Amino acid sequence: MAVSDECKLKFQDLKSKRSFRFITFKINEQTQQVVVDRLGQPGDTYDDFTASMPDSECRYAVYDFDFTTVENCQKSKIFFVSWSPDTSRVRSKMLYASSKDRFKRELDGIQVELQATDPSEMSMDIVKARAL
């Protein structure tokens, strides 16, 4: 599975310049390549991010999560989300599962990984708990 250069460049922009709040990626089955699906603007919320996940299609995503620690320090962590809803096609789930590790290696700087099959598995409470 190839990874388009745009995926790596947009991820670098999110990581270093904070140009985006999140990026969703999809696999183009015709070209066998991971491509950028959607870019979340810096002002977008976590709800905007979860709403961008399709109900019956798999996606990869990265989310730049800002939070305050118990010591009152502002921090940020980059989450990698593997979205594979139960209603998606079996072939699609297998394709995303088998390509995930290779794709993740292309994105240097991911700090936390989440796997979700429905929105409750990537709720804000879970994200906060994993960030601390």
UniProtKB/TrEMBL annotation:
Domain ADF-H: 1-132
Cited CDD domains: ADF_cofilin_like (cd11286)
Domain of life: Eukaryota
Pfam families the record matches: Cofilin_ADF (PF00241)
GO BP term (any one): actin filament depolymerization
Keywords: Actin-binding
GO cellular component: actin cytoskeleton
SUPFAM superfamilies: Actin depolymerizing proteins
Stored InterPro entries: ADF-H, ADF-H/Gelsolin-like_dom_sf, ADF/Cofilin
Alphabetized GO MF terms: actin binding
Keyword Cell wall biogenesis/degradation: no
Physiological role: Actin-depolymerizing protein. Severs actin filaments (F-actin) and binds to actin monomers.
UniProt record similarity statement: Belongs to the actin-binding proteins ADF family.
Protein known as: ADF-H domain-containing protein
Protein's organism: Digitaria exilis
